[in-house]
Amino acid sequence: MSAIPSRTNRSPLRMNKDVTALIPDFPFHYANYLQSAANRKLPPCQVDPANYGQKVLIVGAGVAGLVAAYEAMRMGLHPVVVEASERIGGRLYSKVQGDPENPGSQVLCELGAMRFPVSGKALFHYFRKVGMTENSADFPNPGTAAAISTVVDYRGEKVYYEVDGNPAFPKPQEYVELEDQFFDDFLENYHFKDLEKAMTEGSIDQQKIKQLWNAIVKPQSGTSGDDVSFYAALLENSGWSKADIDLFGQIGFGTGGWNTDYPNSILELLRVLYTGLDADHQLMFDGSSSLPQRLWSKAPKELGDVMLHWGEDTTVEALSREVFADPFHKEVRHIERQPDGSFRVAITDTRTRKTQQCHFPSVIYTPHVRILDKLRYSGNPQSLPAMNSLLPIDTWEAIMYTHYMQSAKIFAATQRPFWNDPVVGDEQRKMSITLSDRLTRGTYLVDYSASKGDYKGSGIFLSYTWNDDALKFLGDRPAPLPQHVELCTNLLDNIYPGINLNEQYSTVNAFVEHNWEDQPLYLGAFKMNLPGQYEYQRRIFSQFMSGIDTGNPDRFILAGDDVSWTAGWAEGAVTTAINALNKLAVCFGGGSQPANPGPVESWEQLKPVELS
Question: Average pLDDT for residues 180-205, to the nearest whole number?
């Protein structure tokens, strides 16, 4: 989901580097941890058998919630998933568009995450487990070979180019130079090559990562990287003029503008670039929400996994429905810690408005943490002290100041992928992946005809926007969708005269619009920290270690991508779910195998540096 554009010439795969997303703040190798457990035919963690069947409430049915629930079930606990909406997936949200009478013409619109970096190996562990990697392809990012062709519409000028395609349309040298200067000059102020090497398989060095990264976060002298915005860092260290920085902000390397990230801490950008999360993305033809859906509905034996305690046909769905016949439309509105360390939880059915008081020995909370902040003030004012006691005041402060980015998409299913029509000689293609400094900003073309699944149609993300650009699509009521489709269509018809987009759209169920800022259960697309917010992130991420050092581990556990150091990527949702799982195991008398220590057992060696 991240707004950071994809690099092209310098992508790890193009440079023959097998980079793994070892987050520099806590460079634990989650994928190795998961694979090592799988090789031993065991769940990643185990609990004391005396605690088999203990219930764990898991709030939220996104990928973090379902990974945590699936693995908790495997190790013998009883996960109970509740979801405030009507669906599985959270911000993995694949919606079917096109004619329902003709399934072959239907296409999936990814309203949330749609491109998945191969360096996110913990996420891909689960993609492989549920069989999704067998039906995937390179994502058509601007400026990549998968895009076939790219058009940059900037300051009234249109530039057309192809990568690994027709040599008559090379990538403009100006874009190539921007990418070279960014990686060879600017990023070397931040030890980019050394840190990337330390995250590359065959030369992974966790202590080197920590040494170099901690010196950026907390230098012995000078300004902490946490105090500097991306824009300020460019001014100070790029050697570019303000005009160069403006150009880079609008078009990047011809792969997307970077200016939506300019206000964010430079640390946010560096984490994504070191880990390769910005490049080498895959499109999942089965739909991103298939991952949590399959973890919800499939038994471990179907996915090649061993399970402890439960019968071999048991699923997360079945265990959840034992407690709530319908676990959807169930909004958690109050959580109160009991004297014995368990929790009384108020769960409201958002359709009937009826509230149940339930009791659970442990709770994993995965929605956006700002939703948790709002919960403190809902209901009876006398309940506020109980909610306050869930977390230390410093952690509540970090949650209150969490900064979310906005994101909006407008999508149209098409009758066919007309942009792939053959061209003759030096003809330009009818339409291309498009970057514009105007209203649409990013226009993406997706073709599912190579899918092995049910959906083989095509479509256009007429507009994919961030922050202020996304807000331009809010507020037009009562019927924004037709108006916004018309605005985008008019602009694109101006860029591509002669295609007449209205004639290309599907005649049935063509259009959908989604703005994460407008969704009551989310409050934005994902978190991006502003300068000065490192300590806030450290407190939230470290919450899963609460009570470990005292021998009284806290059974209320935060997880989700905004708890991670790389919000906006599903990898962060998965890795924080593994943190929560390891904590659960400790809470119930167990932990990781001695030969395969998990994040809890590796904490003292790898924990994030403190600034305060």
Answer: 96
Nearest to 179 by CA among 144, 147, 203: 144
Give the model confidence (pLDDT) of 132-176 as tens digits.
Answer: 999 999 999 999 999 999 999 999 999 999 988 889 999 999 999
Q: What is the C-alpha to C-alpha distance for residues 95 and 287, in angstroms, rounded to an integer?
A: 8
DSSP notation for 261-298: GTTSBHHHHHHHHHTTTTSSEEEETT-TTHHHHHHHH-
Please name every residue paired with 58 in a beta bridge, in sequence order, or none if there are none: 81, 364
Tell me whether residue 267 is exposed, middle or buried, using C-beta atoms within 10 angstroms of its C-beta: 0 to 12, 13 to 18, 19 or more: buried
pLDDT band for position 610 (50/70/90)? very high
CB atoms within 10 A of CB 160: 13
E strand residue ranges, 314-453: 330-337, 343-349, 355-360, 362-365, 404-405, 407-414, 433-436, 442-447
465: β partners:
408
Decide: helix, strand or coil at residue 253.
Answer: coil
Overall residue count recorded for the chain in this entry: 612
Joined together, the tokens standing for residue 153 give: 């519409």
Is residue 1 scored above 60 in pLDDT? no
Q: Does residue 178 carry a pLDDT above 70?
A: yes
- DSSP codes joined into one string, 87-114: SSBTT--EEEES-TT-GGG-EEEESS--
Distance CA 237, CA 186 (A): 6
- What is the architecture of the domain spanning 40-89+289-403+525-605? 3-Layer(bba) Sandwich (3.50)
Could you give the CA distance from residue 432 to residue 132 in angstroms, rounded to a whole number? 27
- Bridge-partner residues for 436, per DSSP? 153
Q: What is the pTM of this model?
A: 0.97
Per-domain residue ranges of the chain? 40-89+289-403+525-605
How far apart CA 257 and CA 573 sit, in angstroms, is: 25
- Structure confidence by residue, pLDDT tens digits, 313-347: 999 999 999 999 999 999 999 999 999 999 999 99
CB within 8 A of 74, min separation 6: which ones?
43, 300, 305, 306, 307, 308
- Measured from the Cβ of residue 457, the count of other Cβ atoms closer than 10 Å reads 26
pLDDT band at 606 (very low <50, low <70, confident <90, very high): very high
